[in-house]
Amino acid sequence: MPTGGTDACLTFDIDTTGQWVTASERRFWEAECDTLIATAQDGPGADVHAAPARATQRSLWQNLAAGALIVIVMFACSFGARMAFASQFAGWIGLGAGAAISTLIVVRWLGITFR
């Protein structure tokens, strides 16, 4: 009988970005992972450790908040340009500039990526 051990790593990456996840779905996936760990621990001399769940996934609410920030900055820049230059064309330019600036803020500084 061999005395050496085997190291294995299994990673589940269940991507729910942009989706509504119900409590029953969450319970289902947690039960699946628990069953897998329990099955792996049944082997002779098995030493199985479960890693903590990653909390880095972006949620739907974060994406909605980032979208709202973009819209607010766009209209603020549009209104400011329209008032400053008394021109509807300046308002359109301000709208485009606001979209670029707010998207840069969301992606660069807040680290939110849309998927």
Structural write-up:
The protein has 115 residues and is mostly helical. It has 2 domains: 1-57; 60-109, no CATH class. It has helices at 23-40, 60-85, 88-109. It starts with 22 loop residues before the first helix and ends in a 6-residue tail after the last helix. The mean pLDDT is 76.
Average pLDDT score = 76
DSSP, total strands: 0
Report the β-strand fraction as a percent range. under 5%
Q: Tell me the number of helical segments per DSSP (H or I, 4 or more residues long).
A: 3
**What share of residues is helical?**
55-70%
**Largest sheet report:** none
Total tally of structural domains: 2
Report the radius of gyration as a whole number of Å.
24 Å
Query: Can you write the helix and strand succession as a string?
Result: HHH
Question: Unreliable segments (pLDDT under 50, ≥5 consecutive)?
Answer: none
Gross morphology is rod-shaped
Overall SS class: mainly alpha
Distance between the termini: 50 Å
Defining key terms:
115 residues, mainly alpha, 2 domains, 3 helices, rod-shaped
Short description:
By secondary structure, this protein is mainly α. The chain contains three helices and no strands.
Topology, please?
Layout: H1 23-40, H2 60-85, H3 88-109
Helix pairs in contact: 2-3
